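ARCHIVE CARD
CATEGORY: sequence design from structure
SOURCE FIELD: tokenized fold
FIELD CONTENT:
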């Protein structure tokens, strides 16, 4: 049986001084963790669980079986690993604080905007400009709907949708991500001015994608989706969704590195809503701090997803702002670096208030008299 180890941060502090310095800065960001659950999984079942703080975790790790000792130490180091800024064309995107990625769908059947920007480049341009003005660090352009049951898109059609949007966003000096699982679209978009390849299949759909991304040197976003064919939502069967997605993302990270992609260029996305039930999505959101143990920046894409409707009397996609912002804040509290959202202005405002609270928490008020 294969043994697996997981180190999950479970308790957090506003700042390190509240814990007399006994807290780690999670992934070099603005979240501090001070207690951890170390979980041993054997053959798919939980074989052991230990609680530790910053002082005791080394003793817990030292007592683990030799077969997983090296991986445990790597995960502990990864939880503390800061990530350098991404240089994306004219823009530099820092990863020591949450950043907002604005969604620009140029599809006829998007669940969210219903094709508003497909045949109206002026509307798309205005929307992209508004997102940038509102504080979006990156614009993510997609030309294929990946909602459950959506038909596959021919590569030529996808290029026709995506490339004009890439070009007008590039003309604004935007940092651009292209949301595609086809190497031909990826290559054309990068040549047209895109900077990041965001692949919902984690570069499994097109066998040329890994080689292309390695050759281009662009950052890549690898998202978890259980389906291995056209239907990315298929085969969502998990023994433990959190640990199964963690293991899957680790395997895709390692496959990307083996293909020649630098680890410094890899971001990971747990794939909220892709082949997962409401309970499984909620479990992943609650477990997001664990995924920093993979040593890569994290992206959370939960905006207007079905789970928000399921928790709010089946609210339609355009009525899910409050829930979407709540999930974005959950991501910020978990130290997620990139939040992929439809509602940029509101999410940036929430992020700015969140950051103000975090900054203020770094001031030590312990010398003030009790109230």
């Amino acid at each position: 049986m294969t043994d697996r180890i997981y180190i999950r941060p479970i308790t957090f502090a506003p700042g390190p001084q509240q814990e007399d310095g006994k807290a780690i800065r999670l992934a070099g960001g603005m979240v501090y963790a001070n207690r951890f659950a170390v979980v041993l999984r054997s053959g798919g079942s939980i074989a052991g669980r230990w609680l530790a703080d910053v002082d005791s975790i080394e003793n817990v790790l030292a007592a683990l079986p030799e077969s997983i000792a090296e991986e445990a130490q790597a995960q502990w180091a990864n939880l503390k690993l800061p990530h350098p800024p991404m240089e994306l064309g004219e823009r530099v995107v820092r990863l020591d604080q949450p950043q907002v990625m604005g969604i620009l769908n140029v599809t006829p059947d998007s669940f969210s905007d219903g094709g508003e920007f497909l045949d109206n480049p002026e509307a798309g341009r205005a929307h992209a400009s508004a997102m940038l003005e509102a504080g979006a660090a990156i614009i993510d352009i997609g030309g294929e709907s990946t909602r459950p049951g959506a038909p596959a898109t021919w590569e030529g059609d996808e290029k026709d949708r995506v490339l004009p949007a890439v070009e007008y966003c590039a003309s604004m000096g935007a940092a651009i991500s292209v949301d595609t699982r086809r190497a031909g679209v990826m290559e054309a978009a990068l040549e047209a001015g895109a900077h990041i390849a965001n692949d919902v299949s984690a570069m499994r759909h097109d066998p040329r994608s890994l080689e292309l991304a390695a050759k281009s040197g662009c950052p890549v976003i690898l998202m978890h989706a259980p389906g291995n064919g056209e239907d990315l939502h298929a085969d969502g069967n998990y023994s433990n969704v959190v640990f199964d997605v963690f293991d899957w993302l680790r395997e895709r990270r390692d496959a990307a590195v083996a293909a020649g992609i630098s680890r410094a260029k890899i971001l990971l996305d747990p794939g909220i809503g892709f082949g997962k039930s409401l309970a499984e999505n909620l479990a992943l959101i609650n477990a997001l701090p664990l995924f920093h143990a993979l040593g890569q920046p994290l992206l959370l894409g939960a905006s207007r997803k079905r789970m928000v409707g399921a928790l709010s009397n089946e609210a339609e996609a355009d009525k899910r702002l409050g829930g979407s912002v709540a999930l974005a804040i959950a991501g910020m509290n978990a130290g997620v670096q990139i939040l992929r959202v439809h509602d940029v202005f509101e999410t940036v405002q929430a992020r700015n208030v969140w950051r103000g609270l975090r900054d203020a928490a770094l001031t030590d008020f312990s010398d003030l008299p009790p109230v």
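CARD ANNOTATION: The longest helix spans residues 241-258. The longest strand covers residues 3-13.
SHELF: design records, drawer C
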